[in-house]
Amino acid sequence: MVRAISRFFEQPVLGPNRVRLAYGVAAATDVVQLALGPFGWFFVDEIVDVVAAIVITRLIGFHPLLLPTFVLELVPIADMLPTWTGCVALVVSLRRRQQASEPPAARGEIIDV
Questions:
Q1: For residue 19, what pLDDT is reported?
Q2: 108 in any annotated domain
Q3: How far, in Å, CA of 53 to CA of 67, rounded?
Q4: List of the chain residues with pLDDT < 70
Q5: Which residues fall within 8 angstroms of residue 108, CB to CB, at 6 or more apart?
Q6: Per-residue pLDDT at 113
Q7: What is the pLDDT of residue 6?
Q8: pLDDT of residue 104
Q9: SS3 letters for 43-79?
């Protein structure tokens, strides 16, 4: 149980495929919510948000900015904004800056000597 929780908070190394997939999921989620309209269908918006939050978290790792994005998506008119895409852009930017400042051994990379 503890291991599963700690895996949830791991920060994966952001490769180009993970970033592309995260942007794709975020953009697709925003497009679906825009197509559903400001009030959406009965709980469809919420289900889409839960799935998006889980998939994005698995792709780029958990970040506290994902939580307010999820809560903002519950507000009827606010879910018409591209909040998931904006959040992914911000988290990816922050993670890349963080990973660039870490030494290669801390990122799990092999160092040639």
A1: 95
A2: no
A3: 9
A4: 8, 39-40, 104-113
A5: 13
A6: 46
A7: 72
A8: 63
A9: CHHHHHHHHHHHHHHHHHCCCCCHHHHHHHCCCCCHH
- Measuring CA to CA, which residue among 65, 52, 55, 61 is closest to residue 99? 61
pTM of the shown model: 0.80
Nearest to 92 by CA among 21, 3, 36: 21
Give the tokens for residue 69: 């994005």
For residue 4, being part of any structural domain is answered with no
Residue 105 domain-assigned (yes or no): no
Distance CA 3, CA 5 (A): 5
38 neighbors 69 (Cβ within 8 angstroms) = no
- Residue in 41, 93, 48, 55 with CA at minimum distance from that of residue 73: 48
The span from the CA of 19 to the CA of 21, in Å, is 5
75 lies in a domain? yes
